[in-house]
């Protein structure tokens, strides 16, 4: 097997959550889960963050176009 061009980094510390998706995101903190993958719901929290940022951006652009 050839050597990887970009070496992999070690995985971050990970705490399994027994809660639901919303509960797991809220128990470790939304930004901590979204940005640091504190538990298995990191990708879900990142998508929620993406929608929040996209919504705020859309509101700002819509407000700017109405002025």
- Poorly predicted regions are none
- What's the tally of helices? 3
Specify the biggest β-sheet.
Answer: none
Q: Percent of residues in beta strands?
A: under 5%
Shape: flat
Distance between the termini: 60 Å
Query: How much is the radius of gyration in Å?
Result: 17 Å
Mean pLDDT: 89
Return the string of H and E elements.
HHH
Tally the beta strands. 0
Helix percent band: 55-70%
Structural class determined from secondary elements:
mainly alpha
Notable traits:
single chain, 60% helix, 67 residues
Characterization of this structure:
With 67 residues, this protein is an all-alpha fold. It is 60% helix and 0% strand. The protein contains 3 helices and no strands. The protein has a domain at 21-66. The N and C termini lie far apart (60 Å). The mean pLDDT is 89. The chain has helices spanning 21-28, 30-36, 42-66. Helix 1 (21-28) packs across helix 2 (30-36) and helix 2 (30-36) crosses helix 3.
Task: Describe the protein's topology.
Blueprint: H1 21-28, H2 30-36, H3 42-66
Helix pairs in contact: 1-2, 2-3
Summarize the structure.
The chain is mainly alpha-helical and 67 residues long.
């Amino acid at each position: 097997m050839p050597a990887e061009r970009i070496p992999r980094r070690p995985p971050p510390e990970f705490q399994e959550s027994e809660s639901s998706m919303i509960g797991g995101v809220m128990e470790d903190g939304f930004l901590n889960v979204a940005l640091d993958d504190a538990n298995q719901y990191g990708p879900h929290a990142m998508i929620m963050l993406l929608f929040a940022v996209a919504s705020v951006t859309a509101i700002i652009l819509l407000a700017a176009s109405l002025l």
